[in-house]
Design goal:
There is one protein chain. With 544 residues, this protein is mainly α. 58% of the residues lie in helices and 4% in strands. Strand 1 and strand 2 form a beta hairpin. Helix 9 packs antiparallel against helix 10. It is globular, with a radius of gyration of 23 Å.
Length: 544
C-alpha cells in the first residue's frame, strides 16, 4: 500500500506534465488537474503504441517519459493547481485515495490477469508489438492499448501492475473538481478491478467522464471524439462512446467533419496495431481479410467463435446444443441461466427498457443520442457474445443518467461510505462471496488479506515452466498451471498447445533468429508431429 502511494505520487505529476505538452498542441479537453492527466494518458498511450512497433517498452522508454513529464510539471509550476482544492475537499481526496490504495494492495484474482494481462505486458516490455503473435497464443493478439500504457510504466514506476488504482484516484480528482457527486457512488464497485490492469476499469471511468462532459455540453468536440475513440481502442465493446461523441459533434455542436480527423487517426492506428498482431482489424473478429500471411489458422478462429457463444450461456450448454436452439430458446435460456448471471442478464434487459421509456418521456436530444448509442452497442454485444462483462458499463451509464440530479454531495458520500465497507469486506473476507454468491466465479480466486500488503502490494510468484521445441520454435509452458503467467518468453498456454496439436498445426518463427519478426502457423510434418505429441505427453497432467 505504501509503495502504491509512492507510485501514485510519481505518476500523477508525470501524467500532468505530459498532458500539458499535449494541451499546448491540442487545446484543453477539460479544465483542471484531471483534464491535463487525461490528455497525458492519451498522449503517452498513443506515442508508446507507435514506438512498440519498433522497440520494446523498456526502462529507457519509461525513464525518458518520466523525465519529460517531471520537467514540464515543475517548469510550468503545475503543482500550484492543487491549491485549488479547499481543505475540506483535499481531505475527501485523501480519504478516498487511501481506500483505493488499500483495495489495490490485495492479490490479483481476475483470471485474465494470469493468462492475458501479465503475458501481454511481458511481451511488450521485452520485445514490443510482435507480428502475428496470435499464432502463438490467440489471446495475445488483443494487445490492448491499456496494456501498452501499463507496460511502459511497469519497469520502475509501477512494477506491481496497479495502474488502475492510480486511475481511480485520478477519477476521484475529476469528481471533486467537477462536483459530479453521483460518480462517487461508482468508485466502491470499481475497487474490485484495481488489483489488475483490467481494461474494464479505465473504459468505465473514461466513458463516464466523457459522458458527463457531453451532458455539460463541452464544446471541445475534436478531443471528445478522439478520447472516445481512444476508449474504444482500449476495449472495442465501448463502441457506444464514439457513436455518441460523433452524434453530439455533428448534431448538437454542429462541428465540421475536420474535427473528427484526430479520432479517425486513432482508429487507423488501432486497426494497424490489430492487423500487425492478429491479422485482422478488430480482435477477435475475422472480418476484412487483407490476406496477410501471419493471420491465425481458420480452425482456431472457428473454435474461438464457438467458445464465445458458449460463454454467452456461461458454459452451461455445449455448442451443439446451442445450435439447436430456436429463437425463443436463445432468449429464454440466456435469461434463465443457473446462478447470478441470469439475474444480471435480466437486469440488463429491464434497465434498457426503463431507459428507453425515460428517453421517450424526456424528449432531450442528448439523452436520445445516448439511448441510440447504447442500443447499438447492446445489439452488437448480443449478436457477438452476450457475456455480462461486455455490457457492464451500460448499468453505470443508465444509473448515472437517471439519478444524477438526485445525488448531492451528502448523499453520495454516504452511499460511497456504505458501499466501500461492503466491497472492502468482499476483498478482505472473500469467503463472503464464495458463500453467498457461489456462481460468481472470480470470488473463488480471491486471496486473503495479509499484513505485508500494507507496505508491499500482494503479488504471486512466477510459475515454473518446462521448455520444448517443435519445428523451429523453442517455447515454454507453465508447469502444472493452465496459463502462461510470468513464464520465460516465448511461452504458450497448455490449452493452445493441445489445440494446435489436435489440428496438426503449430506456430513457427518467421525468422529463426529473431522473435520480434513474429510468428506464422504451419502444418506439421511427420517429424514435427512426433515432437508435438511428445510435448502433449509431458504436459498431459495439466489437462486432468
Amino acid at each position: 500500500m505504501i509503495l502504491l502511494l509512492f507510485s501514485t505520487l510519481l505518476l500523477i505529476p508525470v501524467l500532468m506534465g505530459t498532458g500539458k505538452i499535449v494541451e499546448n498542441f491540442s487545446g484543453k479537453l477539460i479544465e483542471g488537474i484531471s483534464g491535463k492527466i487525461l490528455l497525458g494518458i492519451l498522449g503517452i498511450s498513443l506515442s508508446w503504441t507507435i514506438l512498440a512497433f519498433f522497440i520494446p517498452l523498456n526502462r529507457y522508454v519509461e525513464f525518458s517519459t518520466i523525465a519529460i513529464g517531471l520537467v514540464y510539471f515543475f517548469k510550468d509550476k503545475l503543482y500550484k493547481d492543487f491549491t485549488a482544492f479547499s481543505k475540506k475537499y483535499f481531505s475527501l481526496v485523501c480519504l478516498v485515495s487511501l481506500i483505493i490504495l488499500f483495495s489495490g494492495s490485495f492479490y490479483p484474482y481476475i483470471l485474465d490477469h494470469f493468462g492475458y494481462y501479465v503475458p501481454t505486458i511481458k511481451w511488450l516490455t521485452e520485445l514490443g508489438l510482435v507480428k502475428g503473435i496470435s499464432n502463438l497464443d490467440l489471446t495475445l493478439g488483443q494487445m490492448s492499448v491499456w496494456h501498452i500504457f501499463q507496460a511502459g510504466f511497469s519497469n520502475f514506476s509501477d512494477p506491481f501492475l496497479r495502474i488502475n488504482s492510480v486511475v481511480l484516484i485520478i477519477y476521484t480528482l475529476y469528481i471533486i473538481e467537477k462536483k459530479s457527486w453521483i460518480q462517487l457512488c461508482f468508485i466502491p464497485v470499481l475497487l474490485l478491478f484495481c488489483q489488475s490492469p483490467s481494461p474494464d476499469l479505465p473504459v468505465i471511468v473514461f466513458s463516464l467522464i466523457i459522458l458527463n462532459e457531453i451532458l455539460k455540453q463541452n464544446k471541445q468536440t475534436s478531443l471528445l471524439f478522439a478520447f472516445s475513440v481512444f476508449v474504444f481502442a482500449i476495449k472495442p465493446t465501448m463502441i457506444w462512446l464514439p457513436v455518441l461523441s460523433f452524434l453530439y459533434s455533428l448534431f448538437i455542436v454542429k462541428s465540421s467533419l475536420k474535427n473528427l480527423i484526430f479520432g479517425i487517426l486513432i482508429v487507423l492506428l488501432f486497426f494497424i496495431k490489430n492487423i500487425y498482431t492478429f491479422g485482422y482489424p478488430v480482435f477477435p473478429v475475422s472480418i476484412i481479410d487483407l490476406g496477410v500471411n501471419w493471420k491465425p489458422n481458420p480452425e482456431i478462429l472457428k473454435i474461438s467463435s464457438q467458445f464465445a457463444i458458449q460463454k454467452t450461456y456461461d458454459m452451461q450448454y455445449s455448442y451443439e446444443e446451442i445450435q439447436k436452439f430456436s429463437t425463443i430458446d436463445y432468449i429464454r435460456n440466456w435469461l434463465f441461466l443457473n446462478g447470478i448471471k441470469a439475474k444480471i442478464n435480466l437486469l440488463f434487459i429491464v434497465s434498457l427498457i426503463i431507459f428507453v421509456v425515460f428517453t421517450f418521456i424526456k424528449k432531450n436530444r442528448i439523452i436520445t443520442f445516448i439511448c441510440i448509442s447504447l442500443i447499438v452497442k447492446s445489439v452488437l454485444v448480443l449478436l457477438f457474445s452476450a457475456q455480462y462483462r461486455f455490457f457492464m458499463d451500460v448499468f453505470f451509464v443508465i444509473f448515472f443518467i437517471l439519478l444524477r440530479n438526485y445525488f448531492n454531495q451528502k448523499k453520495s458520500v454516504a452511499v460511497f461510505s456504505v458501499l466501500s465497507i461492503l466491497f472492502i469486506s468482499f476483498l478482505t473476507f472473500p469467503n463472503i462471496l464464495k458463500t453467498y454468491f457461489p456462481s460468481f466465479n472470480p470470488g473463488s480466486f480471491m486471496g486473503k488479506f495479509e499484513k505485508e500488503q500494507l507496505y508491499n502490494p500482494s503479488v504471486y510468484e512466477s510459475t515454473k515452466f518446462d521448455s520444448f521445441r517443435v519445428g523451429n520454435l523453442n517455447f515454454n509452458v507453465s508447469s502444472n498451471y493452465p496459463f502462461n503467467y510470468d513464464s520465460k518468453l516465448p511461452a504458450i498456454s497448455a490449452g493452445y498447445v493441445s489445440q494446435d496439436e489436435k489440428l496438426g498445426i503449430f506456430p513457427q518463427l518467421i525468422d529463426d533468429k529473431n522473435l520480434k519478426k513474429g510468428f506464422i502457423w504451419k502444418k506439421l510434418n511427420d517429424k514435427e508431429k512426433k515432437q508435438a505429441k511428445s510435448v502433449i505427453y509431458t504436459i498431459n497432467p495439466l489437462g486432468k
